[in-house]
Batch of 2 targets.
Target 1
Amino acid sequence: MIRILLHIVFLLLLFTIQVSFIHALPYPFDRIPFVLVVTIYLYQYQNQTSSWWWLVCYGIVLDVLSISHAPLEVFSYTLLTGTMMLLVAHVFTNRSFYGMAATSILCLTVLTVSEVSIRALSHVFTSAPFLWRSVLTVNLWAVFFACLLLLFVFPPLRRIQVWVKQLFLDRI
Amino acid sequence: MKPSATGRKRFRRWITLFGMILVALFFSFQGLLTMVMRPIAAPLSALGSWISDNVFWWQESKTISAEALEDLYDDRRQLAIDAQAFEELREENELLKKELSFVERSGTPYVSARVLAKSISHSMNRFIIDVGSSEGVQLGSAVVSGEGIFVGKIVELGAHSATVSAITDPTHSIAVSLLNESRTIGVATGSVGDLLKIEFIPTDETIGENDLVVTSGLESLIPSGLLVGVVNTVQQETGSPFQQAIVEPLTDIRRLSLVLVLTSPDSQP
């Protein structure tokens, strides 16, 4: 029960940082895929496999708050989660920076394809504007920032890994 | 065959996830979520806006200082408000003489709200605020900045939270009029980038750069005369009977952390 509560608290904190803080930064810094990178880092590098459903929850949150780039984000993020699990299990099995970067890039590619497809469908059925270029641009920035985050922010985390592990990771 | 421990664990996770989806669908998850997020979301959003204002000033211009740029923005906003006041004073009625700021001049009831979350991109310009139907907010209510500049309208409503579609959202449209000689009326829609466009303006209407754009009051919950922006460019294709105006909004939603929601007297809690 405590584990679930910790998960929920951490999730809320993560989502709030993403939608309240990062989204308030000027373009293109508001494209930093913080939730995605943290989840991939924990899932692939820290082997915290229980974190896979965070991305699905993030999709739900985006849909619930109606602030997503495309409708039905829960679907896109579920697809992304499946891709992440598949890649980590069968393709990028090592826990290197390159592995995580490649997982992030491919996951964001799947997200982009899914968002563009849903936008296209939405355009056909509800005549909502089909701004596929903007989705592509936004997600290209997200790819860039994902790699940057992994490259510059997470290596220092390895140094304080023991501290992080004792305080948090062992409890979730 | 007995299910393994991993299998049971996975099954439990799926059940939890499914439960959360049910909760989201049936118990108005938005209100619950924003209520839980509020204590940290509001300061984080304000911090993001502050960083946007004070750290990334160089994004706006490479030639002038942050302070000078901010002063210019303030001047422009003030000039726009003054110009609007002048036009309306000259032509319409004396009640707007005391026009200094929107809230004082209009007497329209309002509730102030904090911005909890934002999603700003070329394809989406929305934000969540911490007031909802319990505070008298209605679907379609106008949202303005402290100076009375129109920011957007409510598109989704919870008991204590609401989603605002900003004027620059591509799915957003608002009935506007231009403060030109013929008081041209049109519909402004969000365009790619942080701009608006007013299409299908007959070519016999004279519109010029720097004409002010205000709300026309044709939408029930949006009063007339709220400043929207200034005309940046007027475009016309050869042979077309229409022209279009590209409008630059006077507010930047990235910089907003507090807004006012205009309510009707009947909807006050």
Target 2
Amino acid sequence: MQKLLFLTLGFLLAINTVQAGDGYSVGDKASDFKLKNVDGKTVSLSDYTDAKGFIVIFTCNDCPYAKAYQDRIIALDKKYKAKGYPVIAINPNNPEVSPGDSYKNMQQRAKEKSYTFPYLFDEKFEVYKTYGATRTPHVFLLKKENKDLVVSYIGTIDDNYQDPGKVQQQYLANAVESLIAGKSPDPEMTKAIGCTIKQK
Amino acid sequence: MNSMKIFVAFILALITSTVFSQTQKFSFKQFEPKLHLKNDTTYVINFWATWCVPCRKEMPAFVELQEKYKNKKLKILLVSLDFPNQADKLIFPFKKKYNIQSEIILLNDPDSNSWIDKVDNTWSGAIPATLVYNARFRKFYEQSFTYDELESIVKPIL
């Protein structure tokens, strides 16, 4: 009986530890997903057999920071898709809390801005939790290693959301370039002010 | 001559209204000492923006706290992360609408990666976020507050 108690206790502790370390750190293996794109089709990372990795960006329609980065995200996709690192954008917001981020509005934005990348809806609000995204935009750069997807950089796109012309550090682009050159990104993690992910 | 006086008065009024509607802008370096003041006051520093829906929702809680404890050594500082080019236009009406008596400053330092950890290393950068501290207490909250939640933290440490 005592043994059982200890086992249960240990199990509960283990669960707690997992919860405390919510989301990915650099070096973790990322899991694939299956999410609905704005064109109605589902997209998984495993669909991209030729990709060397992915620029996964949790972003949305409504957040001013996300808007400020829209054009830069398109430019990143155009540049790095050709080099094996396409952008995969995911909207994690609950439209009941943030109506501007509904699937319909996502479709409209993708059309208006002629998104060159999939813009997926995290309909069950699970993928962003697994990844540990807390804000929009929030980037997770993944690198394919054999069959694994290794998280190689987490953070922001660059060091000036206000003005692309004043950017000093292209954090994300530098990280992708590092992977292409066979090196580890430095820094491998950055932070930025962003909008909270809108959930009930 | 009279029209000259009116003109001067008009210009003065214009200057005054501009001054009053402007929010003081800080770089992080200028702002940082406010995170480490050593005296007998309790500081509640809220990071917010006019465009941030959960920030707007919790703002009345901060207004109420300031009002209820105005005779205590409590200072609420509202640190706006609004885009600087829109801040003056947006913050002043916001202040009036919510009847904010607390000090509002604008933190204008776009390389937030360089300073987020200096506010608190557990902060991911999402807003709203609030730092509560005094000489004996320091805690950072990356969350929204109701009035009761906020008071239950601040009241025991005043």
